[in-house]
């Protein structure tokens, strides 16, 4: 892997400079959802992901372009690694869970834009998508204990696997079937 995931601060600054009303987690989720649903990362990907044709394509050396490059590389690597742009580990449980739920909302939006109303999902993919929708509708709690901390780690791992599964259903599966014909 050649590109590094930009920091939340870098993405937040870039989003604000463009007037985007989104968190870094939601923006990365939207991008990964778009790609997992079969959307193209070529051309003006930001306008497509944000459903705003007025947005211009990020420049080649910007944090947003590095975010795109990192996402594409991770999905193409097929090594089951997927970095989520979430609040830092030292942030409060509420902030970390909020960023996770933001990520899920972004992912669902991007996925829906790219995959459409009837994506080619496996039974597991359909269940994963339904679970992501439940997480996107969740609200963070103000405090928690070690059990809640452990649950948050498990949820983040589930989200990684779900995103990769949906990418497999909508992108890798059809790509594999086309190469066999």
Q: CATH topology, what is it called?
A: Four Helix Bundle (Hemerythrin (Met), subunit A)
Number of helices: 7
Main beta sheet strand tally, sense and closure: none
**What's the shape?**
globular
Ranges where pLDDT stays below 50 over 5 or more residues in a row are: 176-181
Order of helices and strands: HHHHHHH
Kindly provide the radius of gyration, computed on alpha-carbon positions and rounded to a whole number of angstroms. Answer: 16 Å
Helix content: 55-70%
- What is the average per-residue confidence, as pLDDT, rounded to a whole number? 90
**CATH class categorisation:** Mainly Alpha
Given helix and strand content, the structural type is mainly alpha
What's the number of extended β-strand segments? 0
CATH architecture level-2 label: Up-down Bundle
SSE layout and pairings?
Layout: H1 8-17, H2 24-36, H3 45-49, H4 63-77, H5 93-115, H6 123-136, H7 146-180
Keywords, please?
globular, Four Helix Bundle (Hemerythrin (Met), subunit A), 181 residues, mainly alpha
Structure commentary:
With 181 residues, the chain is an all-alpha fold. It has one domain (8-180): YgfB uncharacterised protein family PF03695 (Four Helix Bundle (Hemerythrin (Met), subunit A)), CATH 1.20.120.740. 64% of the residues lie in helices and 0% in strands. The chain is built from seven helices and no strands. The chain has helices at 8-17, 24-36, 45-49, 63-77, 93-115, 123-136, 146-180. Helix 5 packs across helix 6, helix 5 (93-115) runs parallel beside helix 7 (146-180) and helix 6 packs across helix 7 (146-180). Residues 176-181 have low confidence and may be disordered.
């Amino acid at each position: 892997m050649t590109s590094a995931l930009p920091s939340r601060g870098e993405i937040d600054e870039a989003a604000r400079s463009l007037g985007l009303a989104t968190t870094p987690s939601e923006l990365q989720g939207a991008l990964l959802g778009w790609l997992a649903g079969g959307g193209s990362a070529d051309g003006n990907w930001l306008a497509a992901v944000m459903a705003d044709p007025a947005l211009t394509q990020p420049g080649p050396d910007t944090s947003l372009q590095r975010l795109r490059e990192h996402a594409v590389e991770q999905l193409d690597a097929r090594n089951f690694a997927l970095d989520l742009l979430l609040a830092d580990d030292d942030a409060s449980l509420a902030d970390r869970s909020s960023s996770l739920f933001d990520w899920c909302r972004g992912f669902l939006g991007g996925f829906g834009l790219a995959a459409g109303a009837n994506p080619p999902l496996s039974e597991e993919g359909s269940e994963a998508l339904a679970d992501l929708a439940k997480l996107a509708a969740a609200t963070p709690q103000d405090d928690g204990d070690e059990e809640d901390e452990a649950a948050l780690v498990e949820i983040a791992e589930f989200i990684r696997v779900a995103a990769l599964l949906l990418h497999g259903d909508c992108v890798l599966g059809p790509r594999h079937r086309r190469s066999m014909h």
